[in-house]
Fold:
Amino acid sequence: MDKLVWQSANKGVNKDIFPEGMEPFTKSAPDKPIHALGSSRSFNARMVTSPIVSGALNKMLIGLDEQVKQIMGIPVPRVEDIQ
Structure:
């Protein structure tokens, strides 16, 4: 098992590794894989809920960035392609 850390105060371990082709995805963006899932219960247990807020803000900012790039005709790179 590997240990995971989200913003230093929240720690966990890998429980499941999804096989290729079985990764979770959202209905709104099925071509974008979800790279990690964290339980909100573990954040509350450690009394550090900032990752929930910052995760939601990051999601909104990334969505806005993608919309602006689409309007401007700029290609949106996939996370896997960024080095």
